[in-house]
Amino acid sequence: SVLKVVEGYALLCGADMMRSYGPMLLSALHELVADTNMHVRAIAAGYTTLNVIVQSVQAELVGPALVESNTMWTPFTRIVDKKEAAMLLVHHAGFLSRVAVHCPQLFMEFLMAQDAQLTRTFAEHWVEIYDDVGQVPQRRLHSLGLAVAIATTSDGVLEMLPLMVPIWNDVLSNTGSSQLYFSDRDDDDDDDEYSEIVVPESERRRKLLSNDPAHKYDLKKAVSEGLAECERLNGVERFHAIIAQVSAVDLEDLKSQLS
Fold it and tell me: In which band, very low, low, confident or very high, does the pLDDT at 33 lie, cut at 50, 70 and 90?
């Protein structure tokens, strides 16, 4: 399909592709994922391609095109509104979690540029969507995105910490720090008469998968660093007041997980 071709170019020469066609390409993909008349499979396929691009291209190249094309604004507002089916909301949240992990500065600047009430509602719904995320890598990615988001002074985001901590505890309890539930096999690996043609791209896809933060990043480290940056930004006194809102049981569990 056309989307697979785009993914192939992103894997092969993503930087050159973004320099030449970035805003136009992301605008077209944005139209796909923003179209409420599209079948969920089409929207999911669009987000898959966007995820490959975000993973394959340096933040300084992909970031401006993401902003210019409004590709972050649509999932943000869909999560704020929370009127779509859970399956669609999971895709919106998954993409923004992907952006948060790969382009943390861009994501935080985008979040802080929004109206305070919108940011509060987004954070609340983003956390709630976790319960509908089924696949383990996506749950890990979601939790990593939250670890990025907590490094802020935004009241709306910080108020969600009591709900974020159980998510981190859940993911850490079930998957450990990293590298669990990972396979480097791709659906394209089956031998066929064209295997010599698809092998190079299959190798690039396996490399992308093996380097995916959902598998590779140490969640303990990500959460610890997010909380440490939160303390630095807010000061010790305010940070302790924020932490005090977390239930004693959840907080003790987190300390145990991070030790």
Answer: very high
